[in-house]
């Protein structure tokens, strides 16, 4: 009986010990993908790369990569953000809470490319955030910084706010010399060597991430505009079905929403134009910096600090990246059905026959399409399928009408949408009468139309 009591006491003590130890072992955390532009893929442990989706949850062991001209952003549970530049690959080594105080630990592996991390200071708890590359480790607490990794060769660390501790890594991954990089400074670390002396961040390097912020602002405005348009369409339907005082209230509400949509659309058009100008300016400054570095004689070039932009334009894609990408393509090709292979081969031949400017335009459209909500994508795909079955003269007329539509100011477009919605809700006999009048109007000579329009200019149109 005593032995049984001792065994039971020992078991309870062991259980309590393990329970007390559990917080120290750590609990897993997740990060969310909040922004995608272009081709962004995620690889889960033991799986192949697959298309990433907005609001996807990522955790330890996941790998994320972006294609050419593609960018993405992750949001951590503590309010920190990690932006991933184009042609970049980043792995999540650890995301967890450890110890009795549940201290947050975030550890990322930047394999190739560039990231920008904005880290929130932890309130009432300790936090650790590190970015590892093949050449160095950058550790921070409450700061804003960027890291670029040139594969297995070198890395750059640029600090925008706060300070970052940068440690060089030896050939076997051992930690070496430590350097503190403060706001406005950058350092470069080549594999197996200590960090170089800090220097001022070049203006065009800082401007790259300012452009990212502007593009994301346009993206968020587009989402809000899409929501407002859906709400406006809903109000149009309700207005057509309502009567009396409720109709007046809905009309007032719809007018307010319409003004907000027009205002947002105009702001977005301006923001897009400003973004294109800033991007062109950045591209010119980057090209100039690269050209200036290339013009240096070999002895001066060896002493001059190379940065990521210069490396990208002078060094071929790392052999390991080419090898891994080719291996993945071959594996996917083996599993592809013959009929799909035939389609891909035809598409590849057609693509190679296109002119460079047309390829560039198509790539831009694909990136824009990837940012659209799922229901908008489905609508576009359905319209494309219907387009194939149309007669050539119908296609020509639709292209001309679309060109005219694009030239209209936002307020005019919204007014036309209102009229179309009103027309949809009319009784059949009224629709028929309007269509007959429209056909008669089309037969009127252009000169007479202009005279009539001048005569009735400024008069409010009759709404059925």
From TrEMBL:
Protein name according to UniProt: FecR protein domain-containing protein
Keywords from the named record: Coiled coil
Nucleotidyltransferase is among the record's keywords: no
Coiled coil region boundaries: 225-285
Domain FecR protein: 62-164
PANTHER family, per database record: FECR PROTEIN DOMAIN-CONTAINING PROTEIN, LIPL45-RELATED LIPOPROTEIN-RELATED
Protein species of origin: Candidatus Desantisbacteria bacterium CG_4_10_14_0_8_um_filter_48_22
Lineage top rank: taxon: Bacteria
């Amino acid at each position: 009986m005593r032995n049984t009591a001792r065994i039971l006491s020992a078991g309870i003590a062991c259980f309590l010990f393990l329970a007390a130890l559990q917080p120290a072992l750590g609990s897993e955390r997740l990060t969310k993908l909040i922004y995608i532009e272009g081709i962004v893929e995620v690889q889960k442990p033991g799986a192949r790369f697959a298309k990433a989706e907005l609001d996807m949850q990522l955790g330890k062991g996941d790998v994320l990569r972006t294609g050419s001209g593609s960018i993405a952003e992750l949001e951590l549970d503590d309010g920190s953000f990690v932006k991933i530049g184009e042609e970049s690959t980043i792995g999540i080594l650890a995301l967890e809470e450890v110890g009795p105080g549940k201290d947050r630990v975030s550890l990322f592996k930047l394999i190739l490319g560039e990231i920008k991390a904005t880290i929130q200071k932890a309130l009432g708890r300790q936090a650790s955030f590190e970015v590892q590359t093949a050449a160095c480790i950058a550790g921070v607490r409450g700061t804003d910084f960027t890291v670029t990794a040139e594969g297995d060769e070198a890395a750059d660390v640029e600090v925008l706010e706060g300070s970052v501790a940068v440690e060089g890594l030896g050939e076997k991954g051992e930690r070496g010399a430590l350097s503190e990089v403060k706001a406005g400074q950058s350092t470069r670390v080549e594999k197996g060597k200590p960090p170089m002396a800090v220097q001022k961040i070049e203006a065009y390097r800082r401007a790259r991430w300012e452009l990212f912020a502007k593009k994301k602002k346009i993206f968020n405005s587009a989402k809000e505009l899409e929501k407002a348009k859906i709400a406006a369409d809903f109000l149009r339907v309700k207005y057509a079905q309502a009567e009396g005082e409720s109709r007046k209230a809905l009309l007032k509400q719809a007018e307010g929403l319409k003004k907000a949509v027009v205002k947002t659309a105009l702001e977005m058009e301006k923001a897009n134009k400003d973004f294109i100008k800033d991007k062109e300016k950045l591209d010119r400054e980057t090209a100039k910096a690269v050209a200036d570095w290339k013009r240096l004689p070999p002895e001066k070039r060896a002493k001059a600090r190379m940065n990521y932009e210069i490396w990208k334009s002078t060094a071929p894609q790392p052999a390991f990246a080419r090898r891994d990408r080719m291996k993945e393509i071959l594996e996917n090709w083996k599993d592809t059905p013959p009929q799909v292979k035939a389609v891909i081969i035809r598409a590849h031949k057609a693509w190679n026959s296109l002119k460079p400017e047309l390829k560039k335009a198509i790539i831009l459209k694909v990136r824009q399409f990837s940012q659209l909500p799922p229901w908008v994508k489905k609508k576009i795909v359905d319209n494309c399928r219907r387009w194939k079955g149309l007669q050539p003269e119908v296609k020509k007329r639709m292209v001309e009408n679309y060109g005219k539509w694009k030239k209209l100011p936002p307020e005019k477009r919204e007014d036309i949408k209102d009229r179309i919605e009103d027309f949809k809700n009319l009784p059949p006999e009224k629709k028929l009468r309007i269509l007959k009048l429209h056909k008669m109007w089309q037969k009127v000579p252009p000169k007479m139309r202009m005279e009539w329009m001048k005569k009735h200019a400024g008069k409010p149109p009759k709404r059925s």
